[in-house]
Fold this sequence. Notes:
This protein has helices spanning 11-15, 18-21, 28-50, 72-76, 101-108, 110-116, and strands at residues 5-6, 55-56, 65-67, 92-96, 119-121, 129-133, 143-144. It is of the alpha+beta class. The longest helix is centred in the N-terminal third of the chain and has 23 residues, at 28-50. The radius of gyration is 14 Å and the shape is globular.
Amino acid sequence: MSIVVVDSITMEQFFMKRERLYGSELTAELRANAAMTVDRINQLIAAFSADGVELEIRPDTKSPVSSGWRPAAVNAGTKGAAPRSNHMKCLACDLYDPEGAIDEWALAHPDVLKRIGLWQEHPSATKSWAHFQTVPPRSGNRVFYP
């Protein structure tokens, strides 16, 4: 099986088809947050891609997004999800990162995260995905532990 590599994510991939089932929960504010998050994630993808790090497609979902928007019901059923996860507010995105290459690159480039306006969950808590959010955690640290 070959690995499929992409150079950006789409709004459709970020919403994960959940807008169809939970569309009544997807407010104008959430849509605006999602557009900002997708834009920042795509800036990040451009930066790490320029250094040769590849964004892969998950074989099971055919998307590079491991988790985008999570309506309340989806978040409640997500193992390990924070009760008030930034995914619920369209302010976070998890990228498929099976070998940890994206996480490793981001740890080495905090200046790029700062310029783009992203915070990274520490890779020790995100096996097979890389979590980024557009708002600072309570600690304020660019790389944080959940």
